[in-house]
Amino acid sequence: xxxxxxxxxxxxxxxxxxxxxxxxxxxxxxxxxxxxxxxxxxxxxxxxxxxxxxxxxxxxxxxxxxxxxxxxxxxxxxxxxxxxxxxxxxxxxxxxxxxxxxxxxxxxxxxxxxxxxxxxxxxxxxxxxxxxxxxxxxxxxxxxxxxxxxxxxxxxxxxxxxxxxxxxxxxxxxxxxxxxxxxxxxxxxxxxxxxxxxxxxxxxxxxxxxxxxxxxxxxxxxxxxxxxxxxxxxxxxxxxxxxxxxxxxxxxxxxxxxxxxxxxxxxxxxxxxxxxxxxxxxxxxxxxxxxxxxxxxxxxxxxxxxxxxxxxxxxxxxxxxxxxxxxxxxxxxxxxxxxxxxxxxxxxxxxxxxxxxxxxxxxxxxxxxxxxxxxxxxxxxxxxxxxxxxxxxxxxxxxxxxxxxxxxxxxxxxxxxxxxxxxxxxxxxxxxxxxxxxxxxxxxxxxxxxxxxxxxxxxxxxxxxxxxxxxxxxxxxxxxxxxxxxxxxxxxxxxxxxxxxxxxxxxxxxxxxxxxxxxxxxxxxxxxx
Length: 529
What we know:
By secondary structure, the protein is α/β, with parallel strands linked by helices. Helix content is 21%, strand content 36%. The chain has 6 helices and 35 strands. The strands form 5 sheets. It has a 23-stranded mixed β-sheet that branches. It has a 4-stranded antiparallel β-sheet with strand order 7-9-13-12, with no helix packed on it. Strands 1-2-3 form a 3-stranded antiparallel β-sheet, with helices on one face. A hairpin with a 5-residue loop joins strand 4 and strand 5 (87-93). Helix 5 (403-438) packs antiparallel against helix 6 (445-481). The radius of gyration is 42 Å and the shape is elongated. The model has no long low-confidence stretch (mean pLDDT 89).
């Protein structure tokens, strides 16, 4: 065990001196500043050069300090309390040869007088007052830090990621038997439970003052209809067979309405929950659901709207009149001669001569993986194996603008133009009226009523212009922020394809393979994958 070097006042012939004992087994040497401070506080002095030689010597050295008998110095110590009052360090100095050792009881009473009452290291103090450990920092008291707890958490037993993508097979096609996007549930299924908060535990500093842990947050399960809460309010389960989703931290379970086909036998379907069609949706019919719509067959020239996702296992041939609208995502084997609009993403194995809009991205994978003809638009990314066709089918691919925001932006532009037309039309009339009135021209009550209506109309339109201009500027700023959008081709992009990124377009005059199109500066450019 390492022993630090230390010093002690001792009797010598004709007086007294300071004995310097060197360290052992890797201990720390005597600090010369500490030694001179010790002597100075007791009004003692000696030759500094001799002290330094004694401190650096490998054997015990004694340096003359004064004449007469050695003063009876009791064992003493220096105390240091950390700023946070969590640690107390003592550094003991031995009594002089004629002095007495301090007892452990004396030391503890001294600590109590200094209001150090918590966390005294009894074992360390017993060892010191038994053996004596001098000129060494001893942590004689330690506070207990608070144990900070954890916020309560909610554990969900279904997929809560609204952007979860379908499972892909090895060839890149969609596995419609393992979609990951629709969360089916059975009556009695556990949907979520609260993992209770851990409040933690109080700590104490060396003065015995309580230190409270950080406050933790509790959790509350939020849910809609068709959900049953346990008596202790710590878990929820489904009351029906259906589909479960998480929207704005609230659990919803939609009833599942199941039919074989949507045709003359069923008519149009409008349901508050989710709809599953085991067969086909025939042309001219509609399916409207507040949950998801799952079609295991083919969709013809029909209209389907879902607040959640739309899944079409065998694809859709819209016959140029079929339309899909999803508040979530659209997943289909193929989309042909159709219009599809999703707030989330669109995933398919083929898109032919269709108008497809996605709030996030459009991914076309599988053996064919082609986008041929029509217009596809996504906010962030369009990825496909093939764009266009060898026969030069007109194909427009657009990224960098949220389709719904773009439609709102364009509609707002038209509204602003109409408002400005009204203001421009009324302004000359009001100016002419003001000029005539300044010249003393008298007007009939009907004319004054007409002018007042024009003034009210103009004021209303100017206020509307200001509000809509602010909204228009916000939308414009949102478009400018989208600088990372791109179009990715893992196969070939054919001539005749037009790629638009934000407000810059590129018409392909030759074919491109395995590349990515990005906006660089003011141009659309091709970069390697």
